[in-house]
């Protein structure tokens, strides 16, 4: 399955996105979660939550314009006082979206505080379309709670997978009750990180840019990695495949 994401941008959004003609065999997801000020204060991304009528109008236009299932991902509201998500969900359902993902925070919260799963549960009760719950899912138990206590149809995992992409396997094993996942060994982790890095280099076709962009991932991957403080610092300085590979070679010697 493939997804194409469209951040809601009221200003000239139709011209910018030239919607229907090129999109096929894809589901279209319009997101109202973007937290960037530049986007949100122009009424785009989560800023659309400030003007729910416009959000509905634009989403309806998308639904009518494309011959594809349209889904929406959004937050619970602009701020604590305007948590409109339950009513918004009903309206989005009535204009024909096929599924709704709710990040259980307001725009004002950014990523602070806890995601409000009670309100995600209320959304699930309010509509018949599939509801995907999002916010603070970090392990199999969190997923089980989301299914059992809030009856969502699926969950979406964000930050917990950064630096730990094998989390999805752990969650799956936890849910299916397969043998407890022992996690990745030191060398398996190194191999996974290296594969991610080399894929990025191949994808970017520019080793310097790929290496610089990987720094945030290296930082996440090596958080708490046994004895990797010095190596992590070396990776933060590296700007070529050769330099990165020499750090990996040193890491592979130690264990
Ligand atoms: C670095 C980063 C980039 C993100 N980019 C997007 C994006 O492009 N579109 C989107 O809908 N949400 C985006 N999000 C929000 C996440 O999808 C998710 O809603 C949010 O992180 C809450 O889930 P979590 O608690 O599992 O991280 C991003 C989050 C982070 C941390």
Question: Can you put this structure into words, describing what you see?
Answer:
By secondary structure, this protein is of the alpha/beta class. The chain folds into 2 domains: 2-136, Aldolase class I (TIM Barrel); 186-254, Non-ribosomal Peptide Synthetase Peptidyl Carrier Protein, Chain A (Orthogonal Bundle), CATH 1.10.1200. It is 47% helix and 13% strand. The chain has a 6-stranded parallel sheet with strand order 1-2-3-4-5-6. Helix 8 (186-204) packs antiparallel against helix 9 (207-221). The longest helix is centred in the last third of the chain and has 19 residues, at 186-204. Flavin mononucleotide is lined by residues 5, 31, 33, 73, 103, 134-137, 157-160.
Set out the fold topology.
Blueprint: E1 3-7, H1 13-17, E2 27-32, H2 37-40, H3 52-65, E3 70-77, H4 85-94, E4 99-106, H5 117-126, E5 131-134, H6 140-150, E6 154-156, H7 167-176, H8 186-204, H9 207-221, H10 229-237, H11 241-253
Parallel strand pairs: 1-2, 2-3, 3-4, 4-5, 5-6
> How would a crystallographer describe the biggest sheet?
6 strands, parallel
Uncertain stretches: 8-26
What overall geometry do the principal axes of the alpha carbons give?
A: elongated
Bound molecules: flavin mononucleotide
The CATH architecture designation of the largest domain is Alpha-Beta Barrel
Structural class by sheet pairing and helices: alpha/beta
Provide the CATH topology of the largest domain.
TIM Barrel
Radius of gyration: 21 Å
Number of helices, where a helix is a run of at least 4 consecutive DSSP H or I residues: 11
CATH superfamily of the largest domain: Aldolase class I
Biggest sheet, strands in spatial order?
1-2-3-4-5-6
Number of strands: 6
- The proportion of strand residues reads 5-15%
Give the % helix. Answer: 40-55%
Could you say how many structural domains there are in total? 2
